[in-house]
Amino acid sequence: MNWDTERIRALRRYLGVTQTELADVLGARQQTISEWETGMYKPRGPSATLLTIIAERAGFEYRENRQEQDKE
């Protein structure tokens, strides 16, 4: 999964957690989550894998094309 800024923010909101709470789950700092969401950095390696596992277990589906969402 490509973890860009919008996808990370959407996952966090879908889970209903704050940046700090997501950071705790990932074993990261809140600042790291903020940096991902602002596009300063992207999650890599284990962090990206954990995000994918969390998303899959939560049943999170993200559609990049808003027009597809509007059609439904």
Key traits:
72 residues, 5 helices, 434 Repressor (Amino-terminal Domain)
Describe the fold and architecture.
It is globular and about 25 Å long. The chain is 67% helix and 0% strand. The protein has 72 residues and is an all-alpha fold. The longest helix has 14 residues, at 45-58. Helix 1 packs across helix 3 (30-38) and helix 2 packs across helix 3 (30-38). The protein has a single domain (5-71), classed as Orthogonal Bundle (434 Repressor (Amino-terminal Domain)).
Which helices and strands occur, and which strands form pairs?
Blueprint: H1 5-15, H2 19-26, H3 30-38, H4 45-58, H5 66-71
Give a short overview.
By secondary structure, the chain is mainly α. It is built from 5 helices and no strands. The chain has helices at residues 5-15, 19-26, 30-38, 45-58, 66-71.
